[in-house]
Amino acid sequence: MDLANPGVLKRLMAQYGLRPQHRLGQNFLVDGRVLDAIVAAAALEPDDLVLEIGPGLGTLTQRLAERAGRVVCIELDRGLVQVLRETVQKASSNVEVIHGDAGRVDLHKLLEERMAPGQKAKVVANLPYYITTPLVMRLLEEELPLTQVVVMVQKEVADRMVSPPGSKTYGALSVAVQYYTEPRVVLRVNRASFMPQPDVDSAVVSMRLRPEPPVDAEAADFFKVVRAAFGQRRKSLVNALTTLGMDKATVQAALEAAGIDPSRRGESLSLEEFAAVARKLFAPDGGSACGGW
Ligand code: SAM
Known about the structure:
Bound molecules: S-adenosylmethionine
Helix content: 25-40%
Strand order of the largest sheet: 4-3-2-5-6-9-7
Number of domains: 2
Strand content: 15-25%
Oligomer: single chain
């Protein structure tokens, strides 16, 4: 059954009395070329465990199951879970379908129960757009045993993920994604590749998890500075960072000690510069503040 064929998808939905749920971001991929590019970007090996979020009707799942050792999917829509269990899961012994909300499922437990100690998984997904950013942040911040995350996201979100400092789209998401991973845009995807067509274009982003933080700063301190800097985007750094509960003179002295002009805006700072500010604000006596992940 070629699930990338729109006619096949429509018949399957009709057979189960289902309709695409807009509120769950149900835009199904119907473009074989894009599906192949996603699978290729994940460079799957026969012993890989893949976690797929939002398998839908199983179009991507089917292809993942051909390459990976095991595919574990989390789908929120009960109707789709039923279809998946009766089609893709039945046809492929290495597919497991879990009914749940990917934002709430205990992912550490889920992975630990299915992997050998020391093993790491990959996340591959065409994400529901309404929760892309919190889901990606969750995957990164929870420090799950992952080597790579390959996801289809809205084009604008992909641009933010890979934005360099100083660009209009550089923000807290760019810093977080670049802190935890090495991201790259694999493919830009036209809205015509989906059924039903969404109102926006998309892109596939591959994020390779870094084994070590790329900069020398305690993660909690680093992200406090990042959040404060971008929380007050239009303000100078010195004014934005006073929201950390420090007086202006202290912030000014820390910025100067870090070699950063206090009148700059947060959006111009590189990861290295955010780390230098965090060290001067929270570990001013010198020494490495880096505590690993
Ligand atoms: N993977 C399929 C494909 O590429 O055709 C479907 C992708 S569709 C963009 C997103 C899928 O995520 C839908 O099947 C939707 O029901 C599911 N979904 C939405 N919110 C979810 C959540 N919180 N947890 C798990 N799945 C969710």
